[in-house]
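Bumping my old thread because nobody answered last time. Still need a sequence for this structure:
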C-alpha cells in the first residue's frame, strides 16, 4: 500500500494571485513582460548555466507565457514560473520557477533567473526566500531542493544564503551546451525552515 502524506492532498493553488515582500511582488506573467523576459533570457551571461541557448526566441517565449497563463502554482508534475517585479513600476526583474514532482507532491524543486541589470541588490535572495516561505508555510511542503552548475558560484552562494544545505556534488551528470557538467545539490526541510516546526 502506498503511503499518502497529508501534503499530497493539497492540490494546485488555483486561487493564487501574488506573493509580496518588502520590495517585490511575485505574480503571474503578463503579455507586457514579454520584451524584458526575452531580453534577460537572451543575455549570454545569464543563459550560460541555464538549459536554453541565447538568444532566446521571441516566439518560444510567447508560447511559454501563454502556457503559464493556464497553469497554477503547486500543480503536481508541472513547473510554474513566478514573475518577479518591482511594485511601483511593475518592471520585470526576473523569475522564480517551482516544480512539484507528480509522484511526490510533498516536495518541490526551485530555480531562479534574474536580469543582470538587477544583480547585486538582493532581489533574488528576497524573492527566493519568499517562495520558500510560500512552499513551506502556505503549502506545507516537506522538502525543497535546488541544483546548480558547480561553476555558478553566485547561485550557489544564494542558495546557502537563504538557508539551503549543500547535500552533494554529482560529477558530469548533465550534458549542457556541448559538455558534461557537474551539479551541486541543495535542500532544506520543513522543520528547518523558520516557522516550519510550528506548523508541522
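Sorry it took so long. Here it is:
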Amino acid at each position: 500500500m502506498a503511503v499518502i502524506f497529508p501534503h499530497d492532498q493539497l492540490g494546485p493553488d488555483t486561487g493564487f494571485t501574488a506573493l509580496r515582500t518588502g520590495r517585490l511582488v511575485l505574480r503571474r506573467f503578463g503579455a507586457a513582460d514579454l520584451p524584458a523576459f526575452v531580453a534577460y533570457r537572451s543575455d549570454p551571461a545569464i543563459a550560460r548555466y541555464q538549459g536554453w541557448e541565447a538568444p532566446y526566441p521571441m516566439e518560444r517565449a510567447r508560447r511559454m507565457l501563454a502556457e503559464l497563463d493556464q497553469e497554477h502554482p503547486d500543480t503536481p508534475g508541472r513547473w510554474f514560473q513566478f514573475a518577479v517585479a518591482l511594485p511601483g513600476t511593475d518592471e520585470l526583474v526576473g523569475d522564480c520557477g517551482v516544480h512539484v514532482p507528480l509522484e511526490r507532491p510533498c516536495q518541490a524543486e526551485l530555480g531562479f533567473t534574474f536580469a543582470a541589470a538587477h544583480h547585486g541588490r538582493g532581489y533574488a535572495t528576497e524573492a527566493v526566500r519568499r517562495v520558500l516561505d510560500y512552499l513551506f508555510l502556505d503549502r506545507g511542503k516537506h522538502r525543497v531542493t535546488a541544483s546548480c552548475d558547480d561553476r555558478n558560484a553566485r547561485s550557489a552562494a544564494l542558495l546557502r544564503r537563504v538557508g539551503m544545505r549543500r547535500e552533494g556534488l554529482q560529477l558530469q551528470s548533465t550534458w549542457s551546451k556541448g559538455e558534461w557538467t557537474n551539479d551541486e545539490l541543495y535542500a532544506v526541510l520543513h522543520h528547518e525552515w523558520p516557522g516550519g516546526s510550528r506548523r508541522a
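The mean pLDDT is 93. Let me know if any region looks off to you.
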